[in-house]
Design brief:
4 helices; 2 domains; three-stranded antiparallel beta sheet; globular
Length: 118
């Protein structure tokens, strides 16, 4: 992925990942055994907490997309200002957003001194 073109958004809208996308054909199963999905997955906190078991090729493409995003932001950093030292928390929910079981999913962001920290 070192020579991959970077992307500007974390995960493209074309990725609709589901546990039903696991490989069933022998050729695809053998291909996915050679892909370093698990080790790459474990290296990316976002993917580690949001991925499904039995990864298929669509999941691997999603991981590679995230790596391309990270490549594009590697030189960025969080700069904390001196003006406002407050902690803010924002949450959101996606009703029935889980494509497999139609369960709701939620997210959050913690902002400290005007910068996202989690």
């Amino acid at each position: 992925m070192g020579s991959a073109k970077s992307v500007s958004c974390l995960l493209g809208i074309q990725f609709k990942l589901s546990s039903k996308q696991y490989p069933v054909q022998r050729e695809n199963i053998e291909h996915m055994k050679k892909v370093p999905y698990a080790s790459t997955d474990g290296s990316i906190m976002y993917v580690m907490t949001c991925t499904r078991p039995n990864p298929g090729n669509e999941h691997w493409e999603g991981i590679k997309w995230i790596l391309r995003y990270l490549k594009g932001i590697v030189d960025l950093c969080i700069c904390y200002g001196k003006d406002t030292v407050t902690l803010q928390v924002y949450t959101d929910v996606d009703m029935a957003g889980d494509t497999d079981f139609k369960r709701s999913t939620s997210g959050y962001v913690f902002v400290f001194a005007g910068r996202a920290i989690s």
